[in-house]
Amino acid sequence: MGHKDGASLALNELRNESQDIYNRIHSIAEDAAFVDQVYRSYSRLPLIPNMRCGAWYTDPDTASNERTYFKSTDGHTGNWSFNLRRPNIHILPLICAHAGLLLVDSTRAGKRMPDALSKTVPIWCAVINRAVLKTTSNINVDADAWNTKLYTPPGVVSAQEHDQIEQKLDGWADDLAASFYILPKLQYPLRPIWITPSTTVFPKFPDADAERQFYPIICISASKQVLDGMERRITGFAYIQGSGDDHELWSMGLTPAQFWKHKQTLLRANRNELPTLVHALASSLNTHSTSTDLNSNASFHPIPIQHVHGRLSICTTHDISSPLGNESAVVYLTSADDVPPALEDHPRVLYIQTPQGKKGQHHFLHTVLPQVMPFIFLHLQNTRRVCIACETGTDTSIGVAIAALTKFFDDSGEFCGESEYEREGVLSKDDIKTRLHWIITSCPQANPSRTTLKRVNEFLLSPPEFLLPHQKSLSPSAVPNPSPNES
Questions:
Q1: How far apart are CA 100 and CA 220, in angstroms?
Q2: Which residues of 221-231 are buried (b: 16+ CB within 10 A; e: fewer)?
Q3: Which of 128, 157, 278, 304 could staple 313 via S-S, CB 3.0–4.6 A?
Q4: 376 sits in which H/E element
Q5: In sequence order, what are the beta bridge partners of 192?
Q6: Contact (Cβ atoms closer than 8 angstroms) between residue 447 and residue 85
Q7: Banded model confidence at residue 50, pLDDT cuts 50, 70, 90
C-alpha cells in the first residue's frame, strides 16, 4: 500500500469515527453534564438552548421552553450583522424577570466557542443597549450610567475585529429603533459573559437589585476544545468536539427530544445495538408525525399573528390534527405524496403539494402564491381565521403569510376587504419587511429562506405581466362564491 493510499485510508477512518453515532451520543452526554454543572451554579437563571445545536445539550426538564436563534453567520468576520429577521426580542422579558440568562451552544474543532456566542450575542447585547436609549418607551433610563460598550471574549476576538464591529453598532441600533419591534423597559443593560469547559472559576453576580449593574447573558460553550476535534476516552468512545452540530450527518433521524427522553437507554446500548435502537426510535417518530386525523381529539396548535388579532396563524402540518371549527380554514403545504384523505376533500382546506429544491421555488411563485391568495381572501372575507401550515412551520408558510398580510391588511393590522387590490402598485419592500416583523414578534422561530423572501417580493412587487396569464392571482370578483357549507 502506497503512502497516499495509507493516508487516505486513515482520513476515511477518522471521518467515519467523527460521524459515528455512538461517539456522538456519548460526547453529547459528556458535554451536557458540563452544562448541567453550570446550570446548578446559576439555578435562578433560565437555561435556553441556541437553536439548533444547543437543544442537544439542554435537558428539557431544566431548560426553558423558549429558544434563541443567534446564527454564527451573523458573527462571521466581515459579515457581522444585527439581523432584524432574527432579533430575539422575545427573550428580553425573560431576562428582565430573572435578571439574566444562560445560553447554550457549541462548536466543532478549531475554536473555543462558536461565533454565535463570541460575536453574534455580543453584537446583540450592544445593539439592544444602544437601541434602548433611542426609543421613547425607555426615556427614564439614565443615559450617562447606561453601559453601551461592546464586550467580546479576549483571546477569541481580535482588537481589530472588535473595533470594526463597534463602528457598525449605532447603525444597527438605529434600524432596530425604527423597526416594528417594541423593546421592553430594561432596568439594566445586557452584558455577555462566557463560560467554557476550560473555565476554572465561575463568576459570581449580585442577587440584590441595589448592587446589580447589568443583566448577565452567560454564554455556555458546551464542548471541550480538543486537538483535531477528537479525543479518546478510556470508557470506549472517541470524544467529538461539537457533536450536536450538523446532526443531519450522523443522527440517523434521532432528535434532541428523543435523545433526552431515551437518554439512559441510548447510553446503555453497545456500539452494535445503537443504530438499530435509533432507527426504531426515528421510525416511531415518523409514523406519529404523518398520522394526521382531522377527526382526532388531539389539540390544534396554531401560532396566531397578534398584530392582526389572530386572523392569520402559522403552524406545522403535523399540528393540524383536530377537527376544524366552522370559523377556521387551513392552507396545507407539503412535499409529501401521501396526504391524509380527510384533508383532500375538506371544504375549508386548500392542499397544495410543494416540490423541493429549485423546482419548488418556481412552483411557490407561479402556483402556490397565486392559488393561495384568493382562498385566504375568501375566508377572511367570511370572517374566518386562516391557518397556514407547512412541514417546518418556519419557511414556506411564513412566505405565504407575508404575502397575505401585505395584500389584505393595512399598516394598523386591519383587514382591508376588497380595497386591498387598490393598494397594488404602491407596495414597497419596507411594507413587506414590516409584515415579516409582525410574524416574528408572534412566532420567533420563523426563519424564511432568502429565496422564499425573494419570491414573495417578486410576487408582490412585479408588474402583472410577470406572472403567466393563466397563473395570475384572482381578483375578488373572480373568487368563486362559497358553497352553503363554506359560508
A1: 13
A2: bbbbbbeebbe
A3: 304
A4: helix 369-381
A5: 217
A6: yes
A7: very high
E strand segments, 133-237: 190-195, 215-221, 230-232
CA quadruple 60, 62, 65, 68: dihedral sign:
negative
> What is the distance in angstroms between the CA of the first residue and the CA of the last residue of the chain?
77
Contacts of 10 (CB under 8 A, 6+ apart): none
Do 148 and 103 contact (CB within 8 A), yes or no? no
Query: What is the SS3 assignment for 372?
Result: helix
CA atoms of 104 and 121, how far apart (whole Å): 11
| Whether the Cβ atoms of residue 164 and residue 149 lie closer than 8 Å to each other | no
* Pairing assessment for the beta strands 328-334 and 385-390 based on DSSP bridges: parallel
Q: Give the whole-angstrom CA distance, residue 168 versus residue 220.
A: 26
Closest CA to 315 of 394, 383, 236: 394
Q: Compute the CA torsion angle 274, 277, 280, 281 (nearest 10 deg).
A: -90
CB 157 within 8 A of CB 120: no
Phi and psi angles of residue 334, each rounded to the nearest 5 degrees, phi first: -150, 150
Q: What is the pLDDT of residues 216-250, one digit of tens each?
A: 999 999 999 887 777 888 888 889 998 888 888 88
| 281, amino acid identity | L
| CB-based burial label for 397 (10 Å; 0-12, 13-18, 19+) | buried
- What is each CA distance from 92 to 80, 95, 317, 358, in whole angstroms? 22, 5, 30, 37
Sheet with 190-195, strands from edge to edge, namely 47-49, 101-105, 215-221, 190-195
Q: Which residues pair with 313 in a beta bridge?
A: 304, 387
- At 408-448, the pLDDT tens digits run 999 999 998 755 544 555 788 999 999 999 999 999 989 99
CA distance 312 to 330: 10
Closest alpha carbon to 390 in 374, 404, 401: 401
